[in-house]
Amino acid sequence: MKSQHPIGLFDSGVGGTTIWSEIHKLMPYENTIYLADSKYAPYGNRPAEEIIRLSIKNVEKLIAFDCKIIIVACNTATTNAIEVLREKFSIPFIGIEPPIKPAALQSKTKRIGVLATKGTLSSTHFNKASKNYTNTVDIIEVIGKQLVTLIEAGEIDSPKIINLLKEYTAPMIAANVDHVVLGCTHYPYLTPILRQILPSHVQITHSGEAVARQTKKVLTDNKMLDEKNEKPFYRFHTNGNARILKSLLQEYSDKIEISTLDF
Ligand code: DGL
Predict the structure, then answer these.
(1) pTM beyond cutoff 0.85
(2) Which domains are present in the chain?
(3) Which residues face 180 on adjacent strands?
(4) Which residue has the CA at smallest separation from atom 9 of ligand 1?
(5) Cβ(11) to ligand 1 under 6 A?
(6) pLDDT category of residue 228 using cuts at 50, 70 and 90
(7) How far is the C-alpha of 117 from the C-alpha of 145, rounded, in Å?
(8) What's phi and psi for 149, nearest 5 deg?
């Protein structure tokens, strides 16, 4: 696979753009193709077999676009499907899962909160990973019901979403957590509101930066980094509402291409 080939990313919708922006910040020279599978969002309430089927569909599309590496920019798809994807396809994959390790290691109160979808929190993958830390920290897990659907509808600061976030963080605050892990790539868009709701000493973390660093490392190790590309392209395809994607990516509007596509 040549270095000029694009990095592919997919998510159940617009959330993985929080990962794309970190990839772009660290490797602006890389061509990227992003698939927003908004037509089938949310993934989080679907059974694992369906999440696997949708993930395979997205990967096949990205491979047809000649991607050299695929970032599963969705915690729900990673925790339910990454093992199957790695077995089925020979392309390198980067997965995304709730970053509980750094939060657990840094926590002083020994209590951390994880906000994620039902699909992520109920996955074997997540439960295996969190078991490594439950001897040393209490993990308060809360399902972010309806959050993805509201963000997909362009609601990132509506009264409804504010009330839901108050409800979901209440048990975390009551337990005296000092870290809240955002275990869904849509949720970083809610950070400004969470910042207002959570006590100021509580750290809000997500995996965007770490994923970008890991992607760069894998590309470098495989001699697929494309630092010489002078005219990189950044393409976004959605099978849902392009308007929401455009508004979330507004700051990049002069250099990205957004189009609707049936996949
Ligand atoms: N962005 C996806 C994630 O990280 C959202 C999942 C969903 O569609 O429910 O889990």
Answers:
(1) yes
(2) 2-96+208-260 (3.40.50.1860), 100-205 (3.40.50.1860)
(3) 113, 204
(4) 44
(5) yes
(6) confident
(7) 7
(8) -60, -40
